[in-house]
Design brief:
This protein has 4 helices and no strands. The chain is mostly helical and about 120 residues long. The chain has a single domain (about 5-95), classed as Helix Hairpins. Helix 1 (about 5-30) runs antiparallel to helix 2 (about 30-60). It is elongated and about 80 Å long. The termini are far apart.
C-alpha cells in the first residue's frame, strides 16, 4: 500500500498550518496571554518547517547537516525562556492596581471651553 502524501510533505503542511493558525491568533485576539500563545504556535510551525527543509536535503542523498538541528533546538530554548518572561510580565501588569482617574484634566478642559464662549 502506498502513502498518498510523503512524510516530509505532511510535516511541511503541518508546519504551514501551524504558522497560519499562529498568525490568525496574533491578528484576531487582543488578550495578551492569547497573543503569547498564538506567537508560540507560530514559532512551533516555523521550527517544524525549518526541520523539514533541513531533513529534505539529507533525504536527497546529501549528508545530514547537524547545524539546522542545533539551530532549532536553540530556538526552542530561547522561545521557551522568552515565553516565560512574557507571561511573568503580563501577570505582573495584571496584578497592578488600576490607576485612579485624573479628575483635574476634564475640569480644566471644561473651564477653557467656557472661557472661549
Amino acid at each position: 500500500m502506498t502513502a498518498l502524501v510523503s512524510t516530509p510533505t505532511l510535516f511541511g503542511l503541518t508546519g504551514a498550518a501551524l504558522v497560519a493558525i499562529g498568525l490568525y491568533g496574533l491578528i484576531v485576539h487582543g488578550d495578551a496571554l492569547r497573543r503569547i500563545l498564538a506567537f508560540n504556535i507560530l514559532g512551533g510551525g516555523i521550527f517544524l518547517l525549518f526541520g523539514v527543509i533541513a531533513r529534505r536535503g539529507a533525504g536527497a542523498g546529501f549528508g545530514g547537516d547537524p547545524v539546522p538541528q542545533a539551530m532549532v533546538i536553540t530556538g526552542i530554548v530561547v522561545a521557551f525562556s522568552a515565553t516565560a518572561l512574557a507571561v511573568a510580565l503580563v501577570r505582573r501588569l495584571q496584578a497592578l492596581p488600576p490607576e485612579p482617574e485624573d479628575e483635574a484634566a476634564p475640569a480644566a478642559a471644561s473651564t477653557e471651553h467656557e472661557e472661549a464662549a
